[in-house]
Structures are given as C-alpha cells and as structure tokens.
Amino acid sequence: MRILITNDDGINAAGLDVLYKIAHEVAGAEGEVWTVAPAFEQSGVGHCISYTHPTMIAKLGERRYAAEGSPADCVLAGIYDVMTDGKPDLILSGVNRGNNSGENTLYSGTVGGAMEAALQGLPAIALSQFYGPGNVELEDEYEAATVHGAALVRDLLQKGDWGDKGGYCTFYSVNFPPLPAAEVKGRAVTAQGFRPGTRFSVKPTRAPNGRRFLWVEGAKQDVATGPGTDVQANIDGYISITPMRADLTAHDQLAGLKAVLE
C-alpha cells in the first residue's frame, strides 16, 4: 500500500510524526509512506488552494517533501508531482493539534486536505486530537491517536463506505478524545455538531510601532452539542468518526424552495 500524508500544522509538527507512525503501521513492511506537508503552519485555511500564485516545493529526504502552500496544495503536489509513478492508495491528513469537531470542521486545513483527496477520487481520512485537561500534561499529548489510530484506519479501509454520490466521494473526519489512551471508551459514528453560542471573533491590538492589528480569537471547545454528534462524543470520551462529502447543498431545502421560487 502507498500512503500519502499531510497536515496543516506544518512539516515539523509533532502530530505529523504521529501520523507517519500510523501510516507506516497501516502500509506494512512492503508499503510506502510519502510525506508532502506545508513548510509553515496552515491552520484555519480550510480547503484553500494557491490558485493565483505558484507553490515552491523542496525535497527534505527520502519520500519527504515540504511545500509552501496549503494542505490541499500539498495533496495536489503529492498526486501530480511527487508520486509520479502511481497515485497513492490512501491519503491521511493530521494528526491535528486540537479538535476538528463541530464548526471547526469548516475552517480546518486538516479536513481541507482530506477533502481535496476525495475530490480527486482517492480514499482519505482526516485525524485530529482533541485537547483538554485529560491529556495536555501527558508525556505524549497525542497518546489516544498514537495508540488507537492505526487500528481505526485499517477498519475504515475495510468496512467504510468509500463510494460516491453525484460524483462526490466519501471521506472521513476522525477526532480522538482528550484522554489518555487507556481511558478512551470506544468509537462513535457521528454527525457534525455545532457548539451553540460559540463563534470566532477578533481582538484589536497595537504593535510597538503604533500600527493596529487584529488577532483572531477562538471560543470554548467543551460545549455540549447533543447526542449523536462529534463534539459530544469526544467530550464523553469516545473517538468520533464522521463520514463527509464536499457537497454543500442543503438538500432538505430544495423541495420547499422550488415550491415558492420556481
């Protein structure tokens, strides 16, 4: 098996090392793991691609590359420039430092990388590690992902639905709970949740030279989102597995809108 890995935290991120180990275990001794990751952190870029300017790419080692672009750029570079002798069998994105549950999904470069892979017709999984009091002081903050990641990826490959609907292939977003590996309660297949009352905002600051800048501020992450959703599962100690497609259509609105507007 040939696996391409990427992330949005950058080529030197600890989570990428965790993902490499997961990918290597899944690929097996005869398999290959290729890395194409952003040269610098790209958190929050979503499914951005560098459409209006070129992307520089550098080889750092055997099957290891850094690109000055987004995770989606890295996926495109991996498929069409790096792995020229054959496309990957699987693309993994992560392991993100922090959760990509709930509304975070829409901003996530980690998820954006997996989405681009799916749009290319390739199996893809985004993996993220929720942070909280239960794991931030562990020697390995990614312990839940480190221990449970490979088995979960293998099970998804064997048992997941990788078909397409209207041309949009399924991909998966996996979030590991903020707990030591031994305290993880199991797995939960979930919908994407929404944290009520939580939104990104901006905070103005002054630089020493007097110029005014805005810092983007996040919000509370441990907000309940209800049964059957990813955030809730993570808070309750479960690994969430959310099947996704890049189709943003609000299908439940089509019939009603047709009736009043057509």
Automatic annotation (TrEMBL):
Give the enzyme's EC designation: 3.1.3.5
One GO term in the molecular function aspect is:
3'-nucleotidase activity
State what protein this is by name.
5'-nucleotidase SurE
Encoding gene per record: surE
Q: What role does it play?
A: Nucleotidase that shows phosphatase activity on nucleoside 5'-monophosphates.
Question: Which PANTHER family has this protein been placed in?
Answer: 5'-NUCLEOTIDASE SURE, 5'_3'-NUCLEOTIDASE SURE
What family does the entry list? Belongs to the SurE nucleotidase family.
| Subcellular localization(s) per the UniProt record | Cytoplasm
**One Pfam match:** SurE
Which principal EC class is assigned to this enzyme?
Answer: hydrolase
Q: Where does a divalent metal cation bind?
A: 8-9, 43, 96
User: Its catalytic activity?
Assistant: a ribonucleoside 5'-phosphate + H2O = a ribonucleoside + phosphate
Q: Name one GO cellular component term.
A: cytoplasm
Mind listing the UniProt keywords for this protein, alphabetically? Cytoplasm, Hydrolase, Metal-binding, Nucleotide-binding
State where it is primarily located.
cytoplasm
Q: Where is the Survival protein SurE-like phosphatase/nucleotidase domain?
A: 3-195
Cofactor: how bound = Binds 1 divalent metal cation per subunit.
Instruction: Tell me which cofactor or cofactors this protein depends on.
Output: a divalent metal cation
